[in-house]
Design brief:
alpha/beta, Rossmann fold, five-stranded parallel β-sheet, four-stranded antiparallel β-sheet
């Protein structure tokens, strides 16, 4: 069963989210605070496919803290942040903590379910790859991307990636030296039906550079193609 953890302190919003996810065929687990969300994850983490987390929750652990902790424990789980704010830093902050996507309140049921569906498909695809016994590796310079165990090595040392980061790297490795439009990256990783903002690509690229570049502020591998997008150089 597809299982979603919904952590939202406003009961009306939480019930709205849960009802619509159930209608879309998901089982749900609920939490009203960050601490409660982590407790639920402690009990049910192996069964949870996607976590939907409100950024502004009361208590010691807000949504960003919960996102960071869940991502630390699990690089494969899908994470979507809910925010009532429109400030750029709230959205960027969640993505930098390891979230896959964000939804700004107020949102329609169709938008929410579409975002959850897109993230769930990536989770399911990764699990299928893991069960499929893939032996393929993509090599590029000092990097080795293993498609069987979904890992990246740089000079023999592992680089921890989220599922979104892995898919971006797989796209780069499959198209070395090719300028790739942001829209193409968005469609390839987030799906054809995704209707979010392209800046989610830029934030994930920033996060990737922090992991794969020797000097993230002076990238040699993930190179910006001004006015278009990015390209991978070994």
């Amino acid at each position: 069963m597809k299982t979603i953890l919904v952590a939202e302190d406003e009961q009306a919003i939480r019930e709205f989210v849960v009802i619509n996810l159930k209608r879309a065929g998901y089982a749900t687990l609920e939490a009203s605070t960050g601490d409660e969300a982590l407790a639920v994850y402690d009990r049910e983490g192996q069964n949870i496919d996607v976590a939907v987390l409100d950024i502004m929750m009361p208590g010691k652990n807000d949504g960003l803290a919960v996102c960071k902790e869940i991502r630390r424990r699990n690089g494969s789980i899908g994470i979507i942040m809910l925010t009532a704010k429109t400030q750029e830093m709230d959205k960027v902050g969640g993505l930098m903590m390891g979230a896959d996507d964000y939804v700004t309140k107020p949102f329609s049921p169709s938008e929410l379910v579409a975002r959850v569906d897109a993230v769930y498909r990536r989770v399911a695809l990764e699990e299928a790859h893991g069960r499929g016994g893939f032996r393929e590796e993509l090599r590029s310079g000092d990097f080795v991307l293993n498609l069987r165990n979904r890992t990246l090595l740089k000079n023999g040392s592992p680089v921890e990636l989220t599922q979104v980061e892995f898919q971006i790297m797989e796209y780069f490795f499959s198209n070395p030296g090719t300028a790739i439009d942001r829209t193409d990256i968005l469609r390839h990783v987030w799906g054809e039906s995704y209707y979010g903002e392209e800046k989610i690509v830029d934030v994930n690229i920033r996060r990737l550079r922090m992991k794969v570049e020797d000097e993230p502020s002076n990238p040699k591998h993930i190179v910006t193609v001004w006015g278009l997008g990015y390209k991978w150089e070994a």
